[in-house]
Amino acid sequence: MEKRDELYAGKAKSVFTTDNPELVIIEYRNDTSAFDGAIIEQLNRKGLVNNYFNAFIMQQLAKAGIPVHQVELLSETESLVKRLDMVPVECVVRNRAAGSICKRLGVKEGLELTPPTFEFFLKNDALHDPMINEHHIESFGWADKDVIAEMKALTFKINDILKPLFAKAGLILVDYKLEFGVQNGQVYLGDEFSPDGCRLWDAETLEKMDKDRFRQGLGGVIEAYEEVARRIGCELP
User: Fold this and answer.
1) Domain boundary, last residue among 82, 117, 137
2) Rounded Cα–Cα distance for residues 170 and 166 (Å)
3) Through-space distance between the first and last CA atoms of the chain, rounded to whole angstroms
4) What EC number(s) does the entry state (predicted)?
5) CA 103 to centroid of chain Cα atoms
């Protein structure tokens, strides 16, 4: 597989074209950002850890019947994935209250949400990822009704798969965001699933084991990521 031109560079990943028009290479960098890119730092091994972590999770989801864009690991920091037409929307499931929902609704962090809540956000750093609804998505042409319904259904299915996986490892899956894309009419889970895009707490101590350690200046960010990987059975180099 030949790696060609850089197609896109985000806050923590770069995407490159290949000699196959339906496949691209994602490179996971050590860049770590918070608050819509207002704070950016380099954390050693972050690209490697997130690459392997994501590949492991995608593999578990694929085994459970979830269509994922991940094809294979290429190197410590690179993965081969399907090239998708991405929907510029984040699908968020919250099993417990944390982060922005606490500020918006004045609820206490850690409140268990039964059933879990679901929210859509527009993926736009300049606008600080505003909350949107299904009507916005359809009216502005970001996705049609069928794609919207499929993204929502897959997001909840993924919750049913990952909650017990993390629970078995002594972790609470507090919340997470997912992004989807389409190739040849099929909706696939795209982007990544790592501690950068979800909240994970130790089930006994409620210690934060995710990117909130970076946002809140708690330190030990990569050490926490590696500990989560170890617990769920994801082997790292």
Assistant:
1) 82
2) 7
3) 23
4) 6.3.2.6
5) 22
pLDDT at position 36: 66
Element containing residue 6 per DSSP (H, E): strand 3-9
Q: Of 82, 100, 133, which residue constitutes the final position of a domain?
A: 82
| Mean model confidence pLDDT for the chain | 96
Which two tokens mark 195? 């501690």
Distance CA(193)–CA(177), nearest Å, equals 8
Beta bridge partners of 91: 120, 178
Return the pLDDT at 81: 98
- Residue range(s) defining the domain that contains residue 11: 3-82
> Do 93 and 67 belong together in one domain?
no
pLDDT tens column, 115-126? 999 999 999 989
Assess contact for 228 and 200: CB atoms under 8 A: yes
Long-range contacts of 210-214 (CB under 8 A, 24+ apart): 211/32, 211/34, 212/98, 212/99, 214/32, 214/34, 214/41, 214/43
From residue 32, alpha-carbon distances to 6, 22, 50, 87 in Å are 20, 28, 11, 23
| Structural domain contains residue 229 | no
Over residues 57-78, the pLDDT tens digits come to 999 999 999 999 999 999 999 9
Question: Is residue 234 situated within a structural domain?
Answer: no
Confidence of residue 37 (pLDDT cuts 50, 70, 90): low
Based on the domain organization, do 7 and 57 belong to the same domain?
yes
